Every structure is written in structure tokens, then in C-alpha cells.
Amino acid sequence: MTERTIREPTIREPIALEPAGGPSLGRRAVLAGGVGILVMALPLRALARPSLEQAVAGFTGGAPVNAGRVRLTVPPLVENGNAVGVTVEVESPMSEAAFVRRIGLFNEKNPQADVAIFRLGPRNGRARISTRIRLATSQTVLAVAELSDGTYWSSEANVIVTLAACIEDLS
Amino acid sequence: MTRSLVSVPPTARRGEIVDIRAMIAHPMETGYRMGPNGAEIPRHIITRLVCTYGGAEVFSAEFFPAVSANPFVAFSLIAAESGTVAFEWTDDEGQTETASAEIVVS
Amino acid sequence: MRRPAARLLVLAPLALALLAGAAQAGDIAPHERRSGSTFMAPETQAMQADDTGNPGMLWVLQGAGLWEQKAGASGRSCADCHGSAASLRGVAARYPAFDAASGKPIDLSGRIRQCRSERQGATPWPRESDEQLALTTFVAHQSRGLPITPPAEPRLDPYRETGRQLFTSRMGQLDLSCANCHDDNWNQRLAGSAVTQAHPTGYPLYRLEWQGIGSLQRRLRNCMIGVRAEPFAAGSEEFIALELYLMQRAAGMSMETPGVRP
């Protein structure tokens, strides 16, 4: 555009928001408005957190972790990171001879890597748990299962966390 | 006053795997937030949930600040005998809250 | 049609999102009305639909206890006068109502506070307190599944008209009215969030953003802050007029209390 004119203050733009799946102008606009500031308050503390690998090593005692046997179900895109539904199911007969002892949930980018640790046994009948977790930003979520034979198995998922368009307060 | 909701089927066939759900009102304050005055809001979370069935521990959970406010957990149990399914939540101040439900197994 | 970026910098953020050609304007056609819950992700819809997983039910449960609890100089509980909760079926779907004593409309939360001070002789709870929200949620929950039924009370009409005017008046630094988004652009998105039609079907409701339950007035306050306007006071005539208009606008839609929203 070569010509610029000073817009008269009384003229109002016609209103139209971006269509679903369209360019992310709206997101940038919202970030500029202060949501970004709230999110950015987190990483300073997060610098001190252990990595995902360190957190898992704390759970396994350094034992090797195999991929497989664990199914981690989490929505790929969530509307709000304050309550993200997570289900972990582990392939196991859940008998006295072979069962899942523990399931650990970990995250990559929250201020703290640990989310929750569940302790199970043969009386559960099925190695499946669900809970709701907080995700501060888009990141990887990891579930690790400890079996009664002492082996560890894991599964991971990437979650995109969208920012709320309307925040409660600017303070 | 009860601020927890537990869901245990009232009846089940022996050997059936039943779904159990438990939810409790709690802010799960992470300790990473600041109040309007810029002061840190101290951490206040539930750290542990224990579930017993007929007096024996059958499930437990250890929570960190990344568990959502008003923590919700679902898991399963084999309906072995009629009895009480009891829940006890403990927070980082040592406060406990309990809830329970009866299951009749036939 | 996009304008030069330099000019946009002086506009506040929400307005930045509002550049392309005009959408439809005016009221939403009756057959196009949709509750906010229909705009949600399937996971959030499932959270609302399941009473054993809907966190709002924790406040319903607390409210059920408060309903039976004796309070104040009267030594009476809500139940002592009103009986079982079943007597409340449909009540919340008719609020705000006309309060003959004051000659003004009153919302459900205001009525509960009035009952508590005048009938029970107790100190009313603050509007956004856990107790007040719990009792209001418990009462509104009794009307779940019933259609919103604004009373045909002519004395409410002037307030409904005030509410309509507030809904369509531009306000705040962003110079936006409620209608600019919720009548004219409800089928669009603002960043990752659906704009929705702003029907008050689920209140008080559990908002994931709040990590707790909140009132319609809290949500309206939230919106006013969003357009950088000075919010009306809690319990003010303006908020109640807006509530009256919103309930009229949503007449016939089903109550969902306790709703869950992102």
C-alpha cells in the first residue's frame, strides 16, 4: 500500500473474527493483550526443574524404560490447560503373578516434572487410571508403568494447549 | 461438610470389574502463582489419596501441583465381596478428608 | 481485507482480530440458537454430562447441605420453609424476577441473600463466596433440563429494554458491544476459542479457566474487562438488567446447571 491516510476516529471497522482454522492473527492479538505475560511468569522458576529424563530416572531408579505396553490417551488439542483429561491403560493380566505396580505421569514443560504416581495391584482387575492434569503450555506428556517383574514401559503424547481468549483480570 | 463425590456401583456380580471415581473440592494451589499484590500464593495441595476395600488398601495416588484443582481420579476394582470402599485424601498441611460407599456383591 | 500493521498497533488486542469483512448483524434466528456447551470440545462436553465427573456437582452437593442447615436469629433452614428441593423445580428458569417490596428486579443470588438476611436473620454471604455459589448452584440445578421461562411480568419490561441497550452498546477501550461478538460473530473464533452466542444456560457454572464455579455476573465482569471497560458493580441494576435481557434472549433453551465451560 503506497498511500496512507489518517483515519477519522469516528469510523468503525466492520467486525469479523478470523474463521476457524484461519490465520492466527487473533492469537497474536490476544498475546499482545497480556495473556503472554501471565504465561511468561512461569519459566523463571522452571529453569530449576529436572528434565523429563531425570524425573523418569527418579521413578525407575535408573532402570531402562521400554516403549510399548502402555496406552496414554490425552486430547491432542485442549481448550484449557487447567484440566486436561488423561487416561493411562497398561497391557497386563493384573493377576497375582503379573500385575502393574505403579503408573507415573510426567510432563516436559511445567515448573515441576512430576504430575502424579498411582499404585495399583491385582485387585484392580484392570490396569487403567484416569485423572485431570494441568499443562502450562503445549508439551509432551509421558506415562511410565512399573510391572511386578521389575520392568518399566512407557508411552508419550504431544498436547497442544490453546490459550484462553478472555482472561479474568489484567492485574 | 462433605465436599467430595465418590462413585461406586451399589451392586455388582462377584468377580465383575467395576469403575470407581473420586473427586474432591480442593484448590490444588500450585505455589507458582502470584496474588494481585505480587506476593506468592503459598502451595496448598492434596498430596495423597488412599482407597481401601474391605479394610485393605487397593489403590493409592501421590499428587503433585500439576494435578488439576478439585482432583478427579478414576480406576477399577474387582468386586470380590460386599463391603466398604473408603477414600482418604491428605493435604500438605496434614488435613484429611474421608468418604466411603458400600458395595453389595452377589 | 487487511489494513497496514502499523496502524493496528495503536488498537487494543481484541480489535486486531476484527478486521475482515462484516458478518451478519442483528439477532440470532431462533432455529440457530445454540448453548455454549455445543461449541466445546467433546472432552469438555463429556465432563459436563457426567455427574460423577462434573466438578460443579461438588458445589451442588455443598448447596444441598446448606439447604438443610439452620441459620441466623430465626434458627430456620431453607428447607424449614421451602420443604424439599423438588419444590424449587423451575424456579431458577424464571429468574431474575420482580421484587414487589423494592419495586425492582432481583436475580436468584440476590433473592437467596435477601431470604438469608430478612427471613433467616443471618448475614448474607458475599456473592462469589463458596457458600453463596453452592446454594445458588443447588437451587439452579433443580431446574436442569427445563426451558428458560422468563416471567410475563410487564414491570420487568423496562429493565429488559435497558439490558438490550447495554448488550448493544459499545463500551470500553476496545469500543465493542456484547452484540458485536455474540450476535454478529458467534460462528467465528477468537484465537483458539469459540466466540459462542452468550446464552446463560449453565450458570452458576464451572469454568476451567476459573478452576472453580462462578456466577453469570462474574462472567459478564470478565467480558467487560476483556473489552477494557469498567465493570458494573456486583449485584448492580445494570448487571441484573443484562441478565434479564439474556434470559429473554435464551427463552425456551434448556437449563444445564452446573455447566462446564473452558
Automatic annotation (TrEMBL), chain A:
One of the Pfam families matching this protein, by short name: SoxY
Residues annotated as domain Ig-like SoxY: 60-166
InterPro entries hit by this protein: SoxY (IPR032711), SoxY_para_1 (IPR030997), SoxY_sf (IPR038162)
Designated name of the protein: Sulfur-oxidizing protein SoxY
Species for this entry: Ancylobacter rudongensis
From TrEMBL, chain B:
Recorded superkingdom: Bacteria
SUPFAM superfamilies (alphabetical): E set domains
Sulphur oxidation protein SoxZ domain location: 10-101
NCBIfam families for the chain: SoxZ_true
Entry protein name: Sulfur-oxidizing protein SoxZ
Source species: Ancylobacter rudongensis
UniProtKB/TrEMBL annotation, chain C:
UniProt-recorded name of the protein: SoxAX cytochrome complex subunit A
Cofactor(s) in the UniProt record: heme
GO molecular function: electron transfer activity; heme binding; metal ion binding; oxidoreductase activity, acting on a sulfur group of donors, cytochrome as acceptor; transferase activity
UniProt KW Metal-binding keyword: yes
Quaternary structure annotation from Swiss-Prot or TrEMBL: Heterodimer of SoxA and SoxX.
Occurrences of domain Cytochrome c (ranges): 62-148, 163-255
Protein's GO biological process: sulfur oxidation
Cofactor note: Binds 2 heme groups per subunit. Binds 1 heme group per subunit.
Alphabetical list of InterPro entries matching this protein: Cyt_c-like_dom, Cyt_c-like_dom_sf, SoxA
NCBIfam families recorded: thiosulf_SoxA
